[in-house]
Amino acid sequence: MARRNEAAQLYERVEFSKPHRVSDGQGGWEDGWEPQFTCRAGYTRLRGSETVQAARLSGRQPTVIKVRASSASKAVETNWKITDKRTGEGFNIRSREITKDRQYVQFLAESGVAV
Questions:
Q1: In terms of CB atoms within 10 Å, which of 9, 14, 96, 99 comes out highest?
Q2: Angstrom distance (rounded) from CA 84 to CA 54
Q3: Which domain holds residue 41?
């Protein structure tokens, strides 16, 4: 029953994108993002520690984003970005952790910074 309740909390829809570099046609390169996959996610906004409070004062919002574990979600690296499909909010990934039961992947991410 506990797993069912955890899965019910994944009601946000997010898109994972990795950095993508393409030629601009004039000998240079343009950096962009290449969407990889979309999935359901749950957010936990952090607001307790002194460091987190200082980040919030500077306009950044640390968030733990939880998704189901899959080959795609386990392949995500810290140079990728997460985009909320409903609001368009972008998140930089700071770290990735697979839960002890290996059912979920949790990303410590930060919004309010250059993505």
A1: 14
A2: 24
A3: 2-21+28-111
Q: Are 60 and 51 in contact (CB under 8 A)?
A: no
Domain tally, the chain: 1
Mean pLDDT throughout 75-101?
Answer: 94
List, as one string, the DSSP characters of 4-62: HHHHHT--EEEEEEEEEEEE-SSS-EEEEEEEEEEEEEEEEE---SHHHHHHHHTT-EE
Choose among 94, 90, 74: nearest CA to 82: 90
CA-to-CA distance for 46 and 17, rounded, in angstroms?
Answer: 23
- Is the whole model's pTM more than 0.85, yes or no? no
Q: What is the pLDDT of residue 1?
A: 45
